[in-house]
C-alpha cells in the first residue's frame, strides 16, 4: 500500500511540477531550495525495482549523501533501528536511503541547513520544535486526523506549534524513581523517607550514595525540575489557551524558590551532589552503590546488563508541597523544509513510521513507551516496565517547545548547581537566574 501510494504521489508531484515549469525544464530547483516542500518532483520516480542498501556514516561532521534519495540524520543510539526501518522502506519503494550518525543532530543540522547540505529527515526531541519552526528549517507534515487519533494525545500535542503539525512522534519519555529492590524493598512515598533510608544504607556501608540524580557542576534543570513542580513552581506560566508564555517567567516565584530550598536542604544532607552527573549517575546505580536513581527509560538497559533487580516508581512527594512531577518529552521525526525529495521524506515519516510495526521497532531506542497507542499496547504486554513509566509520568506537563526555552537551560542549571553546593541562597540565586533568563530572551 505504501509503495503504491508513494509511486502515485511521486508521479503526481512530477506532473504538477512539470506543468508549472511548462513541461520542459528541470524541476530540481524547487526540491533543492525547499520553496515548495511537499510538491516538488523528486530526483527519482520511485519505480526502480532495486534500491541500494542504506549507508551509515559516523562522523563529527556528517555530510549529506548526494546519491541518496532520502537522507536521515540520527544519534548513534537510534541510528541502527532507523537504518533497519529505512532499509525496509527503501527496498519496498525503490529508493536509496542513507542513514547517517550525527554527534549533535540539532547543532549540525542548523549548520548544514544554512549551507544547503541538510538531510531530508532528522530525529530529535520535541523541545527543538519552536526553534526549528522559527528558523524555517522544518516543513509541516500532513498527518491525517484518523492517523493522529491513534497516537497518545500528549505526543501529538508535542508535534504542534501554533496549531500546525511539524513532526511524527515515536516515543514518550519522563523521569521516574528507579529503585534497587534488594537495598530498598519498598517505594518511598516522600522525599524525606527516601533520604532517611538512603542515609541509613550509607551509614551501614551498604551503599555509598543516598540518591543518584544528575546535577553536575553546571546543573541539570531537566532532572531538577520535579522539585520546582512539586511546590507549584516551574519555568514559564501559561496563556489563556494553555500554551507556555515566554513573557511569564516563574523561575523566582514562591513555588520555585520553595522547590529550590529543597535542593539546598538535600545538598546539605549530601543527598544531592554536583559530583554526580551524566558520566557517573547510571554507574552508581548499576554498581549497587545507591538504592535510588532519578532517571528515564534510557538507563534501564545498563541496569539489566549489570543484573540489578529494580523497580520503577513515581517520583515521591516533598513535605509541605506535593508530588514531584517530571517533564514529559517526546522523541520524533522532522522533515526538512529543504528536503531533496519532499514527497519521499513525507511518505516515509507520515505513512511508514506511523505503522504499528515501525513504532514497535523504535521502542528499542532507549525503551521509551511508544507514542502510537497500538504499539504501546503491544509492547506493554511483554514488557512490564512500559506501564510503569507511563504511571510515573501521569500528571506531568510537556517540556516547553518554545524558542525561549533555549535561554533557560544554562542560567537555571547553574543556579541549581550553586544552590545544591551551598554556594548561593535559594531565593537570591533564583531571582538572579530569572533576570538572566529574561535578558537572554530579550536578546533573542
UniProtKB/TrEMBL annotation:
Residues 34-56 have a biased composition (Low complexity). It comes from the Bacteria. GO terms for biological process: maltodextrin transmembrane transport; maltose transport. InterPro entries: Maltose/Cyclodextrin-bd, SBP. Keywords: Signal, Sugar transport, Transport. One of its GO terms (molecular function) is maltose binding. The keyword Ribosomal protein does not apply. Pfam families: SBP_bac_8. PROSITE patterns: PROKAR_LIPOPROTEIN (PS51257). Residues 22-64 are annotated as: Disordered. Residues 1-19 form the signal peptide. Belongs to the bacterial solute-binding protein 1 family. This is Sugar ABC transporter substrate-binding protein. It comes from Flexivirga endophytica. The lineage of its organism: Bacteria, Bacillati, Actinomycetota, Actinomycetes, Micrococcales.
